[in-house]
Design a protein that fits this description.
Chains A, B: Belongs to the HMG-CoA lyase family. The structure is a homodimer of 332-residue chains. With 332 residues, chain A is α/β, with parallel strands linked by helices. Chain A contains 12 helices and 10 strands. In chain A, the strands form 2 sheets. An 8-stranded parallel β-sheet of chain A has the order 1-10-9-8-5-4-3-2, sandwiched between helices. In chain A, helix 11 crosses helix 12.
């Protein structure tokens, strides 16, 4: 019996509203074994929008050879881009990843209004993920960010390995701050701080956010992107909220991870995040029942259960139709 | 590469040390399908002590018919009770559950020095778990607590369903405070606040702890017992630490749950807890590598992987011998 749960107990010093940056269709599906057809991805994005999500990372314009799962970007994006044209609160932001100018050209040609570049706080991961040094990656992003801004597009900078690295171990805070500063100087509107291997703990999160503020980067331009490899993602999110962060990345049903990072076992599940936020009385605009039903549906397409604890707990009732069915009106 | 991880970043306002109340051998195994032989349980407890845990709930003196998994209490307890006789910091507290005077007699006869009674904040669960009303359960505990205290034994009072109930839904804070007050008045030294179905969120935790303080129950007498059904256990623990709680219940490898509570999917894993606490610079006395190796060993006995995320992340290296093996000195 979960009606009325979680009970809402607002806590002092937390934001009234959080923007969830949903990464399931891109970061999540990118790391699934099953190749999902473009029409199923489009349906997934529409269902996520129907559940109230208003920022949904749609796809990635990397070279199709790099990430076969996302090779259908040219088919997928036009199939959902009308969501961005909706009026007012119904409009859905649909950011897409672009690694270079070629990717930017493809994204802009399809009408993308927000893009994201993806850097690394460590040399090891820059090499593994982009086959470049950190400096070379930033040099590659420079014209991408400049031209995106000229075209009026918003730019997010992802930064991986902000807390630990699978090859280098601990990552010093000042090293992360240095790369963040350079991404901001390139013109990124927002930075997403990635704990790609999930090793962060709440005090580390607070220390990094504080150091970024001291380097002149305001909290309003920072988002957090936690992985649940060691079960820490939600506790880390709580620390970030206490610091004033209001944009949190998560993946519906906990889809995804990172194929190039050893032992990365998946993003924070959007449902687990929403359970906590609603319990804290924080507005997200999300209908948890519809979101859970969407993840149950997607898990069915992938042929395996959702790794989200909340989805598994709520799944027995989430298999009911996402929309009112005639049966539910029988008693009226 | 996890050497040096998690990095320790102490956060303001948190305790310097936390006592982990390990419930794996009792609460964990009680809810496993596989009946574990007494000698394996004793070995489990010794390995947990070897990993640095100093409070290990050993077993339960309920009627053997109620919980067949714990019907070997008379054989198990004497097989580990020497751990309580160790000197100084090496001494291990070995609390045991007792539901009634008959159970108390059995526990005291074997030399138990700490017992726990287990009440419910809700009528529905009191009926399901003890076949009694809340009042009748408290009346049953009254002579148990009084006689335990006379015998010089410490008494913990467990309270289930402190945040939500599978039949009743939301549980009002004042209802929980009322039952806590009565358990303290009976003479319980410590109360363990159970989120048996895992629905709590951090603000709810803070609200309950604050209300208990206002009712005259100091934080020093309160422990928290969170379940990870909705992935909230560690975030809730963080809220409790911020409130000053220094005793946290958890289960090695995330063993257990509650067979009488719908959708209860397991206790907070001790390893996930230790990862966070060590990351916060909080002393636990626990060697995470040895603890993980213990949970991997126990999972092998149970024939299934550990549900702890930290255990799964660290398992590839935890399958190495817990102690130095001759092979590891080959290069010397």
């Amino acid at each position: 019996m979960t009606e009325g749960l979680p009970m809402a107990f607002p806590a002092e010093g937390l934001p009234a509203r959080v923007r969830i940056h949903e990464v399931g269709p891109r970061d999540g599906l990118q790391n699934e074994q099953t190749v999902v057809p473009a029409e199923v991805k489009a349906e997934f994005i529409r269902r996520l929008a129907g559940a109230g999500l208003r920022t949904i990372e749609a796809t990635s314009f990397v070279h199709p050879k790099w990430v076969p799962q996302l090779a259908d970007a040219e088919r997928l994006f036009p199939a959902v881009s009308d969501l961005a044209d909706r009026e007012g609160d119904a409009a859905v932001r649909l950011p897409v990843l672009v690694p270079n100018e070629r990717g930017l050209d493809r994204a802009l040609a399809l009408g993308a209004r927000e893009i994201a570049v993806f850097g690394s706080a460590t040399e090891s991961f820059a090499r593994a993920n982009l086959n470049r040094t950190v400096d070379e990656a930033l040099a590659m992003f420079e014209p991408v960010v400049a031209r995106a801004k000229e075209a009026g597009a918003g730019v997010r900078g992802y930064l991986s390995m902000c807390f630990g690295d699978p090859w280098e171990g601990p990552v010093p805070v000042e090293q992360v701050v240095g790369v963040c500063r350079r991404l901001i100087d390139l013109g990124c509107d927002e930075l997403s701080l990635g704990d790609t291997i999930g090793v962060a703990t709440p005090g580390h999160v607070t220390a990094l956010l504080t150091a970024l503020n001291e380097a002149g980067i305001p909290t309003g331009r920072l988002a957090v992107h936690f992985h649940d490899t060691y079960g820490q993602a939600l506790a880390n999110t709580l620390a970030a909220l206490r610091h004033g962060v209001t944009t949190v990345d998560s993946s519906a049903g906990g889809l995804g991870g990172c194929p190039y990072a050893k032992s990365a076992t998946g993003n924070l599940a959007t449902e687990d995040l929403v359970w906590m936020l609603h319990g804290l009385g924080i507005d997200t605009g999300v209908d948890l029942g519809r979101l859970t039903a969407t993840s149950v549906w997607m898990a069915g397409r992938l042929g395996r259960p959702s790794p989200s604890r909340t989805v598994r707990a709520l799944a027995p009732r989430a298999t009911a139709p996402a929309q009112d069915s005639p049966a539910s009106h029988k008693e009226q």
